[in-house]
């Protein structure tokens, strides 16, 4: 089966599709001036758009890796947005860790693996 790459840049592709699975690169908010709730909402909206482009949706997520700049300060806000966004009964395998981000204003980054529709 061929490998399909979407929105390929020099160093990465935003999505890679292979063998019925879509792998998303880490997604960020468009506006990095907001708080954790705003950044999480924007990040989840980006994931929705990219999954749709790849032929999947949030109900098909298999795994999520979430990176937070400050887990003590932002875990509750992230989870409030995540819980409201997630389709009931479809919780994926998930890891959430604190990480140094590439820029100080980035509060959250989320990487997704999902099954195609």
In the predicted model, the low-confidence regions spanning at least 5 consecutive residues are: none
Query: What is the CATH homologous superfamily assignment?
Result: RutC-like
Q: Supply the number of structural domains.
A: 1
Whole-number mean pLDDT:
97
Number of strands: 6
Cα Rg: 14 Å
Number of helices: 2
**Shape-level CATH architecture:** 2-Layer Sandwich
Distance between the termini: 17 Å
Question: Mind summarizing the main beta sheet?
Answer: 6 strands, mixed
Shape: globular
The proportion of residues in beta strands is 25-35%
**Looking at the chains present, what oligomeric state does this protein adopt?**
single chain
Helix content: 25-40%
Q: Which fold does the CATH topology refer to?
A: 60s Ribosomal Protein L30, Chain: A
Task: Indicate the structural class.
Answer: alpha+beta
Structure explained in plain terms:
With 117 residues, the protein is of the alpha+beta class. The chain has one domain (4-115): 2-Layer Sandwich (60s Ribosomal Protein L30, Chain: A). The chain has two helices and six strands. A six-stranded mixed beta sheet has the order 1-2-3-6-4-5, covered by helices on one side. Helix 1 (36-54) packs across helix 2. The longest helix has 19 residues, at 36-54. The chain is globular, with a radius of gyration of 14 Å. The chain starts with a strand and ends with a strand.
Outline the secondary-structure elements.
Layout: E1 4-8, E2 13-18, E3 21-24, H1 36-54, E4 61-68, H2 71-85, E5 93-98, E6 108-115
Parallel strand pairs: 4-5
Antiparallel strand pairs: 1-2, 2-3, 3-6, 4-6
Helix pairs in contact: 1-2
């Amino acid at each position: 089966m061929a490998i399909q790459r979407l929105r390929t840049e020099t160093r990465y592709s935003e999505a890679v599709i292979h063998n019925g699975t879509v792998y998303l690169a880490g997604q960020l908010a468009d506006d990095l001036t907001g708080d954790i709730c705003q950044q999480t909402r924007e990040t989840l909206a980006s994931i929705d758009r990219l999954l749709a482009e790849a032929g999947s949706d949030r109900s098909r997520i298999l795994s999520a890796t979430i990176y937070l700049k400050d887990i003590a300060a932002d875990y509750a806000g992230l989870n409030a947005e995540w819980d409201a966004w997630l389709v009931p009964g479809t919780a994926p395998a998930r890891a959430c860790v604190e990480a140094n981000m590439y820029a100080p204003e980035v509060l959250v980054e989320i990487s997704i693996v999902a099954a195609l529709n």
